[in-house]
Specification:
- The complex is a heterodimer of chains A (about 220) and B (about 140).
- Chain A is of the alpha+beta class and about 220 residues long.
- In chain A, a hairpin with a 4-residue loop joins strand 1 and strand 2.
- Helix content of chain A is about 25%, strand content about 25%.
- Chain A folds into two domains: about 70 residues, no CATH class; about 130 residues, no CATH class.
- Chain B is an alpha+beta fold.
- Classes of the chains: A alpha+beta (about 220), B alpha+beta (about 140).
- The interface between A and B is large, with 42 and 31 residues.
């Protein structure tokens, strides 16, 4: 099914009421996967998404510059395709960049009751006589400078597909680019990524960042 | 879609699937960790555990069963019972006093379902990828 639209709104005079839509087009989200099985392009009406994940065939965590470059290439090819099919140029209303980090158990932390080695925000989740928690969750939201978007930070306990305990640390920046030109989209991604980097540095302890750096390069 | 880059393969449309995921423990069923522990125990079964020559569940069956258990927990299904199934498979059952869902994973990791809905209807078949939430909503959580 297609993903619902997500738009950061700042001017409350334009607050929207309930929305209704009559669908005359197929409600589909198409997936295209690369040969290494690590890169995914998702296309639906209203969204063009590039995802990366660590796969066995994928040797290491790619640097931002590399994913930026593959996005730029694939976006150009997609817009060329739209032009070739006389579908016009897309009007880009929002850009979004998300980092999903899996901080695995026994790599810098041992129990949910003792997370001060991971992050200062979850350093005291078992105060007094409380036992180690069964689950933890922390979330915060920030307006980015000049209202160019918002940054969402979430850290929560989770279990991975392999059954291992982990902390799911998700950082999302979303906002409007200054135009639909590819260069402005990339410029917004650079902006969003800068703030995600800032949040990662602030929320994760230096010790954990060293462990995480080693984990990424494997 | 022939104009898309050559290095991509078309994987499907209308997918409700997730590219990569983890199951948050703050929102999922409280039985999740115990169920994963039970599943882990099955790997330690001896050969011929059923006296009919069955091997312990295969790694493919374990992997698929773990995926199903995580999905059941995300949907807060009733506590499942998990047991080995002849030939290297696994069976997972979850139910209420009025309905029941039985999931069988074969040694190749393929899953099948048998559902007894509250009104007495029986459904069965192969459990297609991402079909579990709808099935649960129809059978167990309605």
């Amino acid at each position: 099914m297609p993903l619902p639209p997500k738009t950061e709104v700042f001017d409350t005079s334009h607050r929207r009421g309930p929305s209704f839509e009559l669908l005359s087009r197929p409600a589909a989200r198409c997936w295209f996967i690369d040969r290494d099985r690590g890169l995914l392009i998702q296309v639906q009406n209203g969204r063009f998404i590039q995802n990366w994940r660590k796969e066995k065939a994928t040797k290491s965590y790619p640097k931002y510059e590399k994913t930026r470059s593959t996005f730029s290439r694939d976006w150009d090819r997609f817009t060329d395709f739209l032009k070739g099919q006389r579908l016009g140029d897309p009007l880009v209303q929002q850009c979004e960049i998300t980092y999903v980090n899996h901080l695995e158990i026994e790599k810098g932390w041992q129990t949910l009751g003792d997370l001060k080695a991971v992050t200062p925000v979850l350093s005291e989740v078992s105060p007094g006589r409380l036992p180690s928690p069964e689950g933890v969750i922390f979330g915060s939201r920030y307006v980015l400078p000049e209202k160019r978007g918002r940054l969402y930070v979430q850290m929560q306990s989770a279990i991975g597909a392999d059954g291992k305990e982990l902390l799911l640390f998700t950082l999302t920046a979303r906002g409007a680019p200054s135009s639909s030109q590819a260069s402005d989209l990339l410029s917004w991604f650079d902006f969003g990524r800068t703030w995600i980097h800032e949040a990662f540095e602030g929320f994760v302890t230096p010790e954990m960042r060293v462990i995480w750096g080693g984990q990424k390069s494997r | 879609m022939s104009a898309l880059p050559e290095q991509y393969d078309y994987l499907g449309a209308s997918s409700t699937g997730y590219w990569s995921r983890a199951t948050p423990t703050t929102y999922s069923a409280e039985w999740l960790r115990d169920a994963l522990g039970e599943l882990d125990e099955l790997r330690r079964l001896d050969n011929d555990w059923d006296s009919y020559g069955s091997p312990p569940p295969t790694p493919d069956a374990i992997r698929k069963a773990r995926e199903l258990i995580l999905r059941l927990a995300e949907e807060c299904a009733p506590t499942p019972s998990i047991r080995p199934f002849g030939g290297g498979g696994i069976q997972i059952e979850s139910g209420t006093s009025r309905s029941e869902l039985q999931l069988t994973v074969d040694p190749n990791g393929q899953a099948f379902f048998l559902a007894l809905a509250p009104q007495g209807q029986i459904e069965e078949g192969e459990l297609l990828s991402n079909a579990l939430p709808n099935l649960l909503a129809r059978v167990l959580l309605s």
